[in-house]
């Protein structure tokens, strides 16, 4: 019984960290630059596609592929920021944002299927991450431990970036009053572009390291987009602690629910979402609008 509980808790923690790494990028876009970016799942899928291609086609190592695929995803999407997203920052209504970003999602899905085919894209793990790891009191999958470490590093790194750096100060100033920030000499267009790149990079990073739990396949962007949105809504847009708490809570409920009553599917997951949103309309740790 104890072994089962520990296994469930470990799997739930790994799953929650995958949700966090991907969803925090969407949370940043929605909370800081006020864009409901439904293409975020497509950017995570793009990172997975590029990583799969580099690993299986070019034969690069996993640790080289990981930063290379994230950088390539950011580079490919930056023209979209310049041509399309820049028109949305803090100025247009949510319906316009939703229609444009869902259009981008379908374009990316169609392009990926045309170029690489409508099949599952596995991301092979190196031998150092694919086996079990003996912790002394029990054995755990090494890759899931790696995912947990990536999630914790992401949370700490983001907090330091936004709260302890000049970039974070400039970003908060631009968000609170962009006109005043510009009058003081801040290049808000560059700050928003950097924020977009950060959000896309996080999505791609999560798509790659979490591919074992959320497999990269042709309709990945549509299949998981609702889940990423739910994490942001439950945690509160723009809140790093909120996104982390929501990811861990929902990951635990989903994992345990599917173990105890698999025939109910995602019933427990969405029941918890309804309850949390009803109690905390702005998210568990979100700011009141």
What does this structure look like?
- The chain has 289 residues and is mainly α.
- The protein has one domain: ABC transporter involved in vitamin B12 uptake, BtuC, CATH 1.10.3470.
- A hairpin with a 4-residue loop joins strand 1 and strand 2.
- Helix 1 packs antiparallel against helix 9, helix 7 packs across helix 9 and helix 10 packs across helix 11.
- The termini are far apart.
- The protein has a two-stranded antiparallel sheet.
- It has 12 helices and 2 strands, in the order αααααββααααααα.
- Total helical segments: 12
Residues in helix, %: over 70%
Average pLDDT rating: 88
Beta-strand content bin: under 5%
Top CATH class? Mainly Alpha
Number of separate domains: 1
What's the CATH topology label?
ABC transporter involved in vitamin B12 uptake, BtuC
* Biggest sheet character: 2 strands, antiparallel
- Report the uncertain regions: none
Shape: globular
Radius of gyration: 19 Å
In total, the number of strands is 2
Structural class by SSE content: mainly alpha
Family: Belongs to the binding-protein-dependent transport system permease family. LivHM subfamily.
InterPro entries: ABC_transp_permease, BCAA_transport_permease
GO molecular function: transmembrane transporter activity
Protein name: Branched-chain amino acid ABC transporter permease
């Amino acid at each position: 019984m104890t072994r089962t509980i520990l296994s469930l808790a470990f799997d739930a923690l790994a799953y929650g960290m995958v949700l966090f790494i991907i969803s925090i990028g969407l949370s940043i876009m929605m909370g800081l630059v006020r864009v409901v970016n439904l293409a975020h799942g497509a950017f995570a899928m793009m990172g997975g596609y590029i990583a799969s291609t580099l690993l299986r086609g070019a034969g690069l190592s996993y640790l080289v592929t990981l930063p290379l695929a994230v950088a390539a995803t950011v580079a490919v999407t930056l023209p979209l920021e310049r041509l399309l997203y820049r028109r949305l920052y803090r100025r247009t209504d949510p319906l316009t944002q939703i229609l444009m970003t869902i259009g981008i999602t379908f374009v990316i899905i169609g392009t990926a299927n045309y170029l690489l085919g409508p099949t599952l894209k596995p991301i092979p793990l190196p031998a150092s991450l694919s086996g079990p790891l003996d912790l002394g009191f029990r054995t755990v999958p090494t890759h899931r431990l790696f995912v947990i470490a990536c999630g914790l590093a992401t949370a700490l790194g983001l907090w330091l970036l936004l709260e302890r750096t000049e970039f974070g100060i400039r970003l908060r100033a631009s968000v609170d009053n962009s006109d005043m920030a510009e009058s003081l000499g801040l290049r808000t267009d560059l700050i928003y572009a950097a924020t977009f790149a950060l959000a896309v990079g996080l999505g791609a990073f999560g798509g790659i390291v979490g591919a074992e739990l959320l497999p990269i396949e042709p309709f990945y962007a549509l299949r998981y987009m609702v889940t990423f949105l739910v994490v942001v809504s439950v945690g509160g847009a723009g809140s790093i602690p909120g996104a982390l708490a929501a990811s861990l809570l929902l990951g635990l409920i989903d994992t345990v629910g599917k173990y105890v009553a698999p025939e109910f599917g995602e019933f427990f997951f969405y029941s918890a979402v309804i309850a949390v949103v009803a109690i905390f309309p702005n998210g568990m740790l979100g700011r009141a609008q």
